[in-house]
Amino acid sequence: MPPEPRLQVTAPRDLKTYRDDQEKILQGYSWVDSQAGLVRIPIDRAMNLMLQKGYPVRGAASKANPQVAPGTASAEGKH
């Protein structure tokens, strides 16, 4: 091996390999933690499941006293 720093000599091929690997992760199914029952699913499938199940809704206590984050519109619609 040549001395440090070693240069990347196949950068375009390395980038393609990296992007292909990332695409497989994003579009495939795999275990994240089989003992905990955590799996990775494709993004499109996850979005469809969320549309079917619905998103979590705040409880009645949260609606009665909403907290407004700094820099966002207040409950009256003012900034």
What does this 3D model show about the protein?
This protein is mostly helical. It has a domain at 30-55. The chain has three helices and two strands, in the order αββαα. It has helices at 11-27, 43-53, 60-64; strands at 30-33, 38-40. The chain has a two-stranded antiparallel sheet. A hairpin with a 4-residue loop joins strand 1 and strand 2. The longest helix has 17 residues, at 11-27. It is elongated and about 65 Å long. The relative contact order is 0.07. The model is unreliable at 74-79 (pLDDT under 50).
Span from first to last CA? 61 Å
* Helix percentage: 40-55%
Give me the strand/helix succession: HEEHH
Give the strand order of the largest sheet, numbering strands 1, 2, ... along the chain. 1-2
Shape: elongated
Number of strands: 2
Find the structural class using helix and strand composition.
Answer: mainly alpha
Mean pLDDT: 82
Low-confidence region ranges: 74-79
Main sheet makeup:
2 strands, antiparallel
Q: How many helix segments?
A: 3
From the alpha carbons, calculate the radius of gyration and give it in angstroms: 23 Å
Strand content: 5-15%
